[in-house]
Amino acid sequence: MGINELLNSTQIGNWHLKTKIVMAPMTRSFANNETGTVGEDIVHYYRKRAKDGIGLIITEGINPSPRGKGTFGVPGLYTNSQVDSWRKVTEAVHEEGGTIVAQLWHVGRLTHRELTGGLPPQAPSPIKADGLVHRLRKPYDTPEEMTLMDIKEVIQEYALAARNAIKAGFDGVEIHGAHGYLIDQFNCEMTNKRTDEYGGNLQNRLSFMKELLMAVINEVGKDKTIIRFSEIKDDIPGYRWANPEETIKAFIQVFHEVGLQIIHPSTNDFTEKMADDMTFHQLVRKYWDGIIIGVGNLNPQTASKAIAEGTIDLAAFGRPLLANPDFVQKIKEERPLKPYEAAIDLKYLN
Q1: What is the pLDDT of residues 260-303, one digit of tens each?
Q2: pLDDT averaged over the chain?
Q3: Neighbouring-strand partners of residue 175
Q4: Which pTM does this prediction carry?
Q5: What is the DSSP string of 37-83?
């Protein structure tokens, strides 16, 4: 069977995707650090991937507010100049027949006041994360516990960023609810010690994510909203769900209630068994009959097989796409892929 499944075009809602290959969201830090705008280098970078035949491009994480920023050079979608700069990117992608969604990313506690305009990080509870801020190399700041007003404000910031994404020409948005960032901090019992309606049992902890998704869907529509969620956390390497299957069921219950159609379960190793001799994506498929984007150090063969088996519908690749702007063409022609080299591939926008 080989890699044929990846190269087939597909229709998802109003999106006609040239292939079932997705460009995974990857932090690049090439935006203007002061203004959060993107330049011609970013336009060229995404145009290349669309021209190559990537079905769906998910951008690097984009901040919905200045306090959502977790490192240098992260773009935003909360000012008119940011919207205008992204419009050039979406026009370039559409000229090449591509589809592109904006990933909205608030890091919550995983930042420092030097990056957030002098204000402390926001989080569900005032619990400091272990480790150093990405690239700033200083310990994470102690976050401020969000008030009910703060929660409403952040939800509105996401809604505005989603509206701005459509204004900038994006085909939809992905909400980054994974990897230990703000939404995931509400979802997790280790970072959420609240005693109000946003804390306590899992259902309550998931209510921030639910309300945020409803606000975004209200702006862009159910068919244009993706959620990325995960067990893994960037700042708590050994973290595991106590009951993976029950947890996944609770997440998917929320996704059904808000009417989502596309979800993006994220893991570092697609083939790793999670529970009951099943992988994360297999457990998700057990309870979800909508679109699933698979990710987790996939190779073309594993990805194609998972699509053929019905575990996933689309396959996301990260590092191989940084090293190979001609990823799709190489797969078509069965040419070897250039290995990813962090020292080169992260340093330059290839």
Answers
A1: 999 999 999 999 999 999 999 999 999 999 999 999 999 999 99
A2: 96
A3: 104, 227
A4: 0.97
A5: ---HHHHHHHHHHHHHT-SEEEEEEEBSSGGG--STT--BSSSHHHH
Cα-to-chain-centroid distance, residue 32: 21
The predicted-structure confidence for 183-230, as pLDDT tens digits, reads as follows 999 999 999 999 999 999 999 999 999 999 999 999 999 999 999 999
**HEC string for 118-151:** CCCCEECCCCCCCCECCCCCCECCCCEECCHHHH
Sign of the alpha-carbon dihedral angle for 18, 96, 217, 82:
positive
How many CB atoms sit inside 10 A of residue 224's CB?
A: 23
Predicted confidence band of residue 314 (pLDDT cuts 50, 70, 90) = very high
Euclidean distance between CA atoms 313 and 315, whole angstroms: 7
- Sequence-ordered alpha helix ranges (H) in the chain: 4-7, 40-52, 80-95, 148-167, 182-187, 202-205, 207-220, 244-258, 280-287, 300-309, 319-323, 327-332, 342-345
Considering the domain 4-345, what is its CATH architecture?
Answer: Alpha-Beta Barrel (3.20)
Tell me the angle at which helices 40-52 and 80-95 cross, rounded to the nearest 10 degrees. Answer: 30
Identity of the amino acid at 295: V
Torsion of Cα atoms, 287 then 290 then 295 then 300, to 10°: 120
Query: SS3 for 294?
Result: strand
3-class secondary-structure state, position 89: helix
Report the pLDDT value the prediction gives residue 1, as an integer from 0 to 100: 46
Q: What one-character DSSP code corresponds to residue 235?
A: T
Q: How far is residue 231 CA from its own chain's centroid?
A: 14
Q: CB neighbours of 48 closer than 8 A, spacing ≥ 6?
A: 325
What residue spans define the domains of the chain? 4-345
Average pLDDT over residues 83-102: 98
Contact predicate 179/266, CB 8 Å = yes
pLDDT of residue 333: 94
Q: Just list the catalytic residues.
A: 181
What is residue 116's predicted lDDT score, i.e. its pLDDT? 96
DSSP β-ladder status, 262-266 and 172-176:
unpaired
